[in-house]
Amino acid sequence: MPKQRRRSLREAVFSCSSPVCDGSGRGGGGGRTRNFSSTEICDDQTQMAEQYSGQAGFLCDGKPGRGCLVPQVTITSDGDSREITEEDLEEEVNGRLRRKLSNSSISSNGSSTAFDESEDDILSDNETKSKGIVTLEHLGDSVDSGEQSNAWWKLKTIVHCPLVATQRRRLSWVQLAGHKGSFKAGDEGSILKKFSENEKLCFERLREDTLHSFVPSYYGMVERDGELFLKMKDLLANFDLPNVMDCKMGVRTYLEEELVRARVKPKLREDLYNKMMEVDSEAPTAEEKKQQAVTKPRYMQWRESLSSTNTLGFRIEGIKRGETCNTDFKKTQSKEDVIQVFKDFVEGKKNIINSYITRLEDIKQALKASEFFKKHEVIGSSLLFIHDHKERAEVWLIDFGKTTPLPEGEKLDHYRPWEEGNREDGYLWGLDNLQQTLSLLAGE
Ligand SMILES: O=P(O)(O)O[C@H]1[C@H](O)[C@@H](OP(=O)(O)O)[C@H](OP(=O)(O)O)[C@@H](OP(=O)(O)O)[C@H]1O
Ligand SMILES: Nc1ncnc2c1ncn2[C@@H]1O[C@H](COP(=O)(O)OP(=O)(O)O)[C@@H](O)[C@H]1O
Question: 384 CA distance to ligand 2 centroid (A)?
Answer without folding.
Answer: 8
